[in-house]
Design a protein that fits this description.
About 40% of the residues lie in helices and about 20% in strands. With about 220 residues, the chain is of the alpha/beta class. The longest helix is centred in the last third of the chain and has 18 residues.
């Protein structure tokens, strides 16, 4: 299956909308946890997802919030920072892929952006047996500071070289992580990696990390 298939993921009484893409002979499946105020339609995450698919990795992009919750979040900006809620939604999606016949045999990785990266780290700390690798793009690991020592999945932290405040937060997180972890700095890039070639470099780094760690999971 090459084209994205629409899926509906049960999550503690709610239903989350998503899209599943599985290249032939996928070596793993990457679940995307989008960042503040974003959704499964994030053009940056979808760009990275396409590159992962071309490298033989399946992807699941899904909304961490329901439509009603997204409408509330537009008004209040509250739910995007509710890291425990976002982590529960990511774990619900992980449980779903563990039972779906198309994906249950595949090792799972998390790709988290901004606050989604914090949710990925919290989820991985709670269910270390279910997560084989994590990539964070411009992440806020400080929002998961209490659990960093419990994360067991190999973790790659990718930060733009001009994103100075977030870069410092990620350096602190790297020191706290006990798992195999690296910090990759994309020179000249800001928080959103909008500069020419910056997002391509993020995708290249993510492909290398996931193929390395999901193949051996």
């Amino acid at each position: 299956m090459d084209e994205e298939a629409g899926v509906r993921i049960p999550a503690n009484g709610e239903v989350l909308e998503g899209g599943l893409a599985l290249p032939a002979h996928s070596v793993g499946l990457v679940l995307f946890a989008h960042g503040s105020g974003s959704s499964r339609w994030s053009p940056r995450n979808r760009h990275v997802a396409r590159v992962l698919q071309q490298a033989g990795l399946g992807t699941l992009l899904f909304d961490l919030l329901t439509a009603a919750e997204e409408a509330e979040d537009v008004r209040t900006a509250r739910l995007r920072f509710d890291i425990p809620l976002l982590a529960r939604r990511l774990l619900a999606a992980t449980a779903w892929v563990r039972t779906d016949a198309r994906t249950r045999h595949l090792p799972v990785g998390y790709f988290g952006a901004s606050t989604g990266a914090a949710a990925a780290l919290v989820a991985a700390a709670q269910r270390p047996e279910d997560v084989a690798a994590i990539v964070s793009r411009g992440g806020r690991p400080d929002l998961a500071a209490d659990v960093l020592e419990r994360v067991r999945a190999p973790t790659l932290l990718i930060v733009g070289g001009r994103d100075l405040a977030v870069l410092e937060l990620n350096r602190q997180a790297l020191a706290a992580l006990q798992a195999d972890s690296e910090l990759a700095i994309v020179p000249g890039a800001g928080h959103l990696f909008e500069e020419p070639g910056a997002l391509d470099e993020v995708a290249r780094l993510a492909v290398g990390w996931f193929r390395r760690h999901l193949r051996t999971a």
